[in-house]
Amino acid sequence: MELTLNPTGHLVMVNISDSEISGGLNSNISRSFADSSAAGIMALAGGKAAPDWPVVWMYWRDFGSRYLLQLCQNQSTAKRLEPSPNLDAASLTSLYLSVPPMPGAEYCNPDILAGIWRDLDSWTLASIARDPDGLAGFLRRHAPAWRQVGRVCFHLA
């Protein structure tokens, strides 16, 4: 399974066969990408990374983690969902310059990355709006590794 950018700038997973889907995690990620690129990026960012993941998966995981960090910082106390701010030009350029070798990398540019960010934000806000528990429910369902963000824990030893 590999991630690729198609000429229209959409991130897709290709070369999926039943024999390549070995574990539940990879199966979940491939199903998420079949739904949408935003769902796939969230599946990569929301869980625990495997040590054998390709560099391309880790790049998009970091992209999604950057989005989740911004989401949690901006929405944690908000009563109404607001779109996340777009990435600034410097951040987009940095992300563009760090795109790993991947099929379709020639189609990538800062505008494509900004579009993927906006698609991720639209998908996430729609998913949160459908969830009866709001942001907390969304994080529990789609990003279990992020559900404790913002909580203070004391460990007594």
Topology:
Blueprint lengths: L1 E4 L5 E4 L9 H12 L1 H10 L8 H21 L13 H9 L12 H21 L3 H9 L15
Antiparallel strand pairs: 1-2
Task: Report on the architecture of this protein.
The chain has 157 residues and is mainly alpha-helical. The protein is 52% helix and 5% strand. The protein has helices spanning 24-35, 37-46, 55-75, 89-97, 110-130, 134-142; strands at 2-5, 11-14. A two-stranded antiparallel ribbon has the order 1-2. A hairpin with a 5-residue loop joins strand 1 (2-5) and strand 2. Residues 18-22 have low confidence and may be disordered.
User: How many helical elements?
Assistant: 6
Query: What order do the helices and strands follow?
Result: EEHHHHHH
Rounded Rg:
16 Å
Q: In percent, how helical is the residue content? A: 40-55%
Average pLDDT score: 83
Read across the widest sheet, the strand sequence of neighbours is 1-2
Strand fraction: 5-15%
Counting DSSP E segments of at least 2 residues, the number of strands comes to 2
Main beta sheet: strand number and arrangement?
2 strands, antiparallel
Instruction: Calculate the terminal CA-CA distance, rounded to whole Å.
Output: 45 Å
Q: How many independent structural domains? A: 1
Class derived from helix and strand content: mainly alpha
Shape: globular
pLDDT under 50 segments (min length 5)?
18-22
